[in-house]
Specification:
By secondary structure, the protein is an alpha/beta fold. 32% of the residues lie in helices and 27% in strands.
Length: 202
């Protein structure tokens, strides 16, 4: 499957019906997801591997991973509504993905690769929320793919180093966040973000 074909398929993954502000449920654009999945595939981190999509939302990374040949894919999110949407979409399209409701801090399952777009911390009540995702990733996998605001990368570099991990690849993207909540005052805001491929010490 070509990257553009994957992107077209991922565009069909539904949005959350009732996004929750403090969970920062902004859908990762299909173009970015397709590029990340292809990058992970080229590193040998997808095909025939067990994948966990932390904070999966409606499952766009999970769908991408299973379409790219993952052996087993599990999507985990604290919001039962997005998990219901994800399950319905997977069932309708005959995709073998396990979706479950769970808070990231309670996840115990091990896997080969974690793929995640944790909250950016754009909401004051949610600042540093991405830390717990990275810390959990270090507990459950050898390889992490994670998206973060570019301006937070220097801090994350120190955190990852202190945990005994190393950043082996990075790539910058422009991430559009479209008007979603009443407190948004623009139709779309663009954020500079960076994908990190992290090798842990597990």
């Amino acid at each position: 499957m070509k990257k553009k074909e994957l992107e077209i398929l991922l565009q069909k993954v539904p949005l959350p019906n009732k996004p929750i502000p403090n969970l920062e449920q902004y859908m990762t654009p299909a173009s970015i997801v397709a590029d990340i999945i292809f990058t992970a595939h080229q590193f040998g981190d997808i095909e025939n591997k067990t994948i966990i999509d932390l904070g999966c939302g409606t499952g766009i990374f999970s769908v991408g991973a299973v379409l790219a040949g993952a052996k087993k894919v599990t999507g985990i999110d604290a919001d039962k509504d997005v998990i219901t949407i994800a399950k319905e979409y997977a069932k309708k399209n005959n995709l073998e993905i396990e979706f479950m409701v769970n808070d990231v801090k309670n996840v115990q399952t091990k896997c080969n690769t974690v793929i995640m777009n944790p909250p950016f911390g754009a909401q004051k009540s949610n600042q540093k929320a991405d830390r717990k995702f990275i810390e959990k990733g270090f507990e459950i996998s050898k390889i992490l793919y994670s998206i973060h605001l570019k301006k937070t990368i220097p801090f994350l570099e120190k955190m990852i180093s202190s945990l005994g991990g190393s950043i082996t690849y990075r790539k910058d993207y422009v991430f559009p966040i479209r008007w979603t909540f009443e407190f948004h005052d623009k139709k779309v805001v663009y954020y500079d973000v960076t994908l990190l491929r992290i090798e842990t010490n597990i």
